[in-house]
Amino acid sequence: MAQGSWYDADIDHVIISEEQIREKIAELAKQVAADHASVDDGLLLVGVLKGAVMFMADFARALGRYGPPIEIEFMALSSYGQGTTSSGVVRIRKDLDRDIAGRHIVVVEDIVDSGLTLNWLLRYLESREAASVEVVALFRKPDAIKVPVPVKYVGFDIPSEFVVGYGLDFGERYREVPYVGVLKPEVYARS
């Protein structure tokens, strides 16, 4: 952990180090590349804003070393629910900028928790006639999943604790933390 960073005092303990994240991303990129070696027209990576930005950048660079050509797109979604939980009712805030019919899509997600928003997104992308739609998620909270979602590639299963870092936020903060840590209860109790 970097000494003197503004967030150090807010983190109770680190559960996934920066090095573990780097190693897992390389492993995931090799798996995705091997599974898509025969895709001639390349893959379209679709990142879900804002949380997936860190993972998307590192994953795209790693995949570029091993795999087929890639293009990237972003979507922004909002789901309505109570506080920190999703209801599965989703609104598109930023849609794709291109037609995806016939394309092989890999959705790049930072975390799968309830699965409700991701379930909606997969159905939406399939309705736009993509050739295939798969998911790579760096983190998953198995205890929080409410609907089964076909996530083909998963980096880490993590406990249902209040975690931040590497794209995961609390009140739009902590996304830039280079590791994943558990936030001290007094930090989120202040809100």
Task: Describe the overall structure.
With 191 residues, this protein is of the alpha/beta class. Helix content is 26%, strand content 31%. It is built from four helices and nine strands. It has helices at residues 18-35, 53-66, 116-127, 185-189, and strands spanning 11-16, 43-49, 70-80, 89-94, 104-112, 132-140, 153-157, 163-164, 180-183. The strands form two sheets. Strands 4-3-2-5-6-7 form a six-stranded mixed sheet. The chain has a three-stranded antiparallel sheet with strand order 1-9-8. Helix 2 links the parallel strand 2 and strand 3. Helix 1 packs across helix 2 (53-66). The chain starts with 10 loop residues before the first strand and ends with a helix. The relative contact order is 0.20. The mean pLDDT is 90.
Mean pLDDT: 90
Query: What is the N-to-C succession of helices and strands?
Result: EHEHEEEHEEEEH
Low-confidence stretches: none
Give the neighbour order of strands across the main sheet: 4-3-2-5-6-7
Beta-strand content: 25-35%
Question: How many strand elements?
Answer: 9
Rg measurement, Å? 17 Å
Count up the helices.
Answer: 4
Instruction: Tell me, briefly, the overall form.
Output: globular
Helix share of residues? Answer: 25-40%
Structural class: alpha/beta
Task: Sketch the major β-sheet.
Answer: 6 strands, mixed
CA distance, first residue to last residue: 25 Å
